[in-house]
Design a protein that fits this description.
Number of helices: 12
Strand content: 15-25%
Distance between the termini: 38 Å
Length: about 475
């Protein structure tokens, strides 16, 4: 049996960042996780450092949504110092950034109720929070060469919202963590050990035990499996599911890609189509997000086909002949109410750092500092009480708005697939879907309702329905 002051279960960007902050303070820290991170969000991430670029009209409509946005804006200001410190600890060059700024494109492929509204919300939020955001002449945007039916007609430039190379970031975090005396254990946590209401350590998949008075579960979607071994403490925390997404690394045939991130507003249950430059004449493309009660470890043909078709039609036609270097799948940790799970649990010494959905990598320096301060009794600078893990399910939006959002995003998926229907059919489909979603929501609970993407996914998942009914029964 070995021992540590703190065990962090999870070797993604959040877990390693927290481990590094704690190790810098002289604590004995062990970070757990398989080296190849199967199905993890970090390895497949586009790694956009986006706050304003992630804004949606729905997000601005609730206090919890604005709290998430304000965390993102605050995190933007931490990255320069974080990367400089990372390079110093790792003894390497500061070479993690991969894109300079973000260009958000508004084209005609989506639907007005989502794309136009979210594009306007981006500009509105930038003005409200005093973040730089400049209108761009679409004819002057470098590199793009979309199909005529997918050309943009408006764009804004967000000069402070960059991107990093996720693989290089993970490598630098590991190097810095070890250089600061941290220990990497190359296997996962299997269960928790606790006594008299306090955590005492973890048991690894090999059966090895590690004693620790503080344990942090930051293993993304796999956090739930470990949390379920905590007895009754797990039942008062919204469960985690996976928001799995497919991405691809493509060659650009020796030509340079763009210098900035190119993306659309968030749309169709997902994070918008986005392209991020990478080194070696490669670009990263991503867009997809589907809620699943279980982790998905292999890219799905349906999603890869959709992604590459969108990238080719909306960003650059020459991607049609690009070589595919890699097709990846990542599983974002999503709580059943859609908001992060950050802070202590009812089991003394057990902490959660998960449920961050699409924001985990961008928030990692800020959340690592904040949770480390709470663990060590240091000074904190951000109010995270709204995301306390032990809570009733958060429902920030009225039931009818959630149903309307679910229907709109489902229809928007059809438009992104370039469906061809008689012009009056979408209104008929929308009417029928509203009736169906309202009936289905009633079957789950007469008052409470999950986020739109979870409601839509649950229609085809009895497991999700069961989870939601148990959540609302409590």
């Amino acid at each position: 049996m070995s021992g540590a002051d703190v065990v962090v279960a999870g070797n993604g960007v959040l877990g390693l960042s927290l481990g590094l902050v704690l190790a810098r303070q002289g604590l004995r820290v062990t970070v757990l996780g398989e080296p190849h991170r199967p199905g993890a969000a970090s390895v497949a991430a586009g790694a956009m450092l986006g706050a304003i670029g992630e804004v949606t009209d729905v997000l601005l409509g609730s206090a919890h949504g604005r709290s998430k946005l304000e965390l993102g804006i605050r995190a933007l200001g931490t990255w320069d110092d974080w990367l400089a410190g990372l390079a110093e600890d790792a003894g390497t060059d500061n070479d993690v950034l991969s894109a300079d700024g973000t260009v958000v494109l508004l084209n005609g492929v989506g639907v007005a109720a989502i794309d136009d509204a979210n594009f306007a919300a981006i500009r509105r939020a930038a003005a409200e929070y005093a973040q730089p955001c400049h209108d761009v002449d679409v004819t002057e945007i470098e590199w793009i060469n979309p199909d005529n039916a997918g050309r943009p007609f408006r764009a804004v430039h967000l000069p402070d919202e960059h991107a990093v190379d996720a693989h290089r970031l993970l490598t630098r975090l590991e190097q810095a963590f070890v250089a600061r005396g941290g220990v990497l254990a190359g296997e996962q946590a299997a269960s928790l050990e606790y006594s008299n209401g306090a955590v005492t350590g973890v048991v690894l998949t090999s059966g090895t035990r590690i004693e620790a008075g503080q344990v942090v579960l930051a293993a993304g979607t796999r956090t739930q499996d470990v949390l379920d071994t905590a007895g009754g403490a797990a039942g008062r925390i919204p469960r985690l599911v996976a928001g799995f997404g497919v991405s691809a690394l493509l060659d650009t045939d020796g030509t340079d890609g763009p210098r900035s991130v190119l993306r659309t507003p968030n749309r169709a249950f997902a994070c918008g189509l986005h392209l991020v430059p990478r080194s070696g004449g490669q670009v990263y493309v991503g867009a997809t997000n589907i809620i699943s009660p279980t982790v998905v470890e292999k890219p799905v043909v349906r999603d890869l086909h959709f992604l590459l078709d969108c990238a080719t039609r909306q960003l650059h036609r020459d991607l049609w002949t690009s070589g595919i270097r890699a097709a990846q799948v990542g599983n974002r940790p999503v709580s059943l109410d859609g908001f992060p799970l950050i802070g202590p649990t009812e089991l003394d010494g057990l902490w959660l750092l998960t449920g961050t959905y699409r924001d985990g990598l961008h928030l990692s320096p800020l959340l690592a500092q904040e949770l480390a301060a709470r663990i060590t009794g240091g000074e904190t600078g951000v109010d995270l009480s709204g995301f306390h893990p032990v809570r009733q399910a958060i429902q920030p939006y009225p039931r009818h708005e959630v149903i309307a959002t679910a229907v709109a995003h489902l229809l928007a998926t059809g438009y992104e697939y370039d469906w061809h229907l008689p012009v009056d059919w979408p209104r008929t489909i929308e009417h029928s879907l509203r009736i169906e979603f309202a009936r289905f929501a009633d079957e789950i609970h007469p008052v409470k309702v999950p986020p739109a993407e979870i409601l839509a996914a649950a229609r085809y998942s009895p497991i999700l329905v069961k989870m939601l009914r148990e959540l609302y029964a409590d």
